[in-house]
Design brief:
This is Trypsin-like serine protease. This protein is α+β, with helices and mostly antiparallel strands. The chain has a single domain, classed as Trypsin-like serine proteases (Thrombin, subunit H, Beta Barrel). It is about 10% helix and about 25% strand. It has 6 helices and 17 strands. It has helices at about 40-45, 50-55, 90-95, 125-130, 205, 300-310; strands at about 25, 35, 80, 95-100, 105-115, 120-125, 140-145, 160-170, 185-190, 210-215, 225-230, 240-245, 245-250, 255, 270-275, 280-285, 290-295. Strands 3, 10, 11, 12, 13, 14, 15, 16 and 17 form a 9-stranded mixed sheet that branches. Strands 4-5-6-9-8-7 form a 6-stranded antiparallel β-barrel. Strand 5 and strand 6 form a beta hairpin. The chain is globular. The two termini are about 30 Å apart.
Length: about 300
Amino acid sequence: MGLLSREIMRTTAALALTTIVTPLLAVEGVPHATGSPVQDRATVLGYWTDDLMKQAEIADGMEQSPGEVITENGDLLGYAPVPMPYVNSKMARVNGVLFIRQPDGSHGHCSASVINSDSKSLIVTAAHCVMGTENKWKELMMFVPAYNGSAKEGERTPLGRWPVKQAFVPSSVPEGQTIDNDIAVARLYLLLPAQPIGPEESVEQKVGGGLKPKVNESGLFGVTRIVGYPGIDRYSGMQQLCDSFTSVVEGTTGLGAKNCCAFSGNSGGPIVLSSSQELEVVAVVHNNVSHARLRASTFNPVYQAADAGH
């Protein structure tokens, strides 16, 4: 079950934008990757008001009790709040909300994280966070690192608002999204300087690096940590973490995390090796108990396409 944010509100006539049906684009020079239309930076920034972001925090989903909770001070679902202020922790800074508008005009969000790359402008998330039903791309995608929905209006985006330039998914995704291919990488626009004269800034420069991708096909890890933004009212748009042992997901390449119950809003959030000094990401949240690995056949092509800036 993919974790898709439910419809929160319909856009008003004043905000409505015409949906353009764009064919799926093969990525030249990078086989096995499919790219979205290139978004317009100014349009995305002009669209997402504080009010719309607050509405898009909310999502529904199954609240299924996990196995034994091993997260320190974790609640019944395994979650504990990430200590604030987020800007004091690299783990918190590199994680954030991916705001999206569904093709039907409703709003929602996923989780995403900054990853190391040559362009210093990439995030990883789940394929179902950028491509919906009938292979329609999500619209007006914008990443906000260290988003804090509990803060006052105007203070919820301490590290800026980063429009997605283009998102990429494995070419197998339009044929059917599964735990085996639910991976997406998106390239962000650079942040414009505060003054008319000055260099543009990459997201890695702003947040102080990124997670190190760890490509893997199988096997188990020690304790892993899920970080993201479950969209249930109880968490008020605040970043949460959950620790879990890993397990095999029979019949798939997926990675289980039995001590955490991920749900809507968590989708696309990173599964990070807690024992790694380099903060390695091995998978992204797929559904409530099993997650999509960064596999060579799915992650590598979309990573290469995004980093090349196609």
